[in-house]
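Throughout our pipeline, every protein is held as a single compact record rather than as scattered files. The record that follows is passed on verbatim for readers who wish to inspect the format.
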Amino acid sequence: MQARLASRFDTIRALPITSKATATPLVPAVSRALALLERLAGAREPMTLARLAGELALPKSSVHGLCNTLVSFGYLRRQPDGAFLIGPRVMGLAEAFVSGTDVAQEFNALWADSGSAPEETVVLSVLSGTEALYVAVRKSARPLGLAFNVGMRLPAYLSGSGKAMLAWLPEAEVRRRFAAGLGTRLTRKGPRDLDALRKELALTRRRGYSLDDEGVREGVYSFGAPVFGASGEVVAAISVCINKAMLGADRGARHRDAALGVAAELSRRIGGDARAARRLEEAAA
């Protein structure tokens, strides 16, 4: 639960608290409270008052007052041993930010307009550094063995939607993002180094869609497809996630086509580049 709360708070961590262009003066108490929340969210573990004060370089009395205030509003939780955790109120802020993005709104509207539920679980994600951040989910009634939730983060080089977004980045940008290597492994599958990832991304660009063959969870297979913005850039990605045992004789071709079709329609709905959307449809043909 704590990891999920922290990951949801991460979706709003990048929001600026000032404008450098206008040199808006900051309110010191608000700045310190946000710095405290960001530090806890980044730690992904309980932190004592003394540790927080030390890492923030603030007097312990000031941090004590900040923590008490944030606890009273539900943005922090205090453990029996006195250490602090991110509280449940941050989930509302993160979900409000995510639901306000155009691509997430259009994804949800797509299913409302169609009046039908997807055959398999369909997720929408955006690229956040080296991770795929899940901003919308339409779940299938079929058991998958992996629960996708809004605010969830996975390594982009392992997930189907993540690889669909990375494939359209300039190679220099991919190298920059993964200069420290591919550290996280969730199963025994998936690319093990940058060269292997580059080869997989090149194949993804050529065929127009990505694959996750049990890189995120054993038994889970997914097809990913990019969502294009107005200038032809990739702004998000769709993935259709299925139980690998259900691929069938066509090796999941209908699920691949579903991912490409949803991505093409979503690209059109947000005013995406028409030629890019057509390429997705041609890849499904």
Remarks:
- Strands lie at 76-78, 84-86, 121-128, 131-138, 153-155, 210-213, 220-228, 234-243.
- The chain is about 45% helix and 15% strand.
- The longest helix spans residues 253-269.
- The two ends are 42 Å apart (CA to CA).
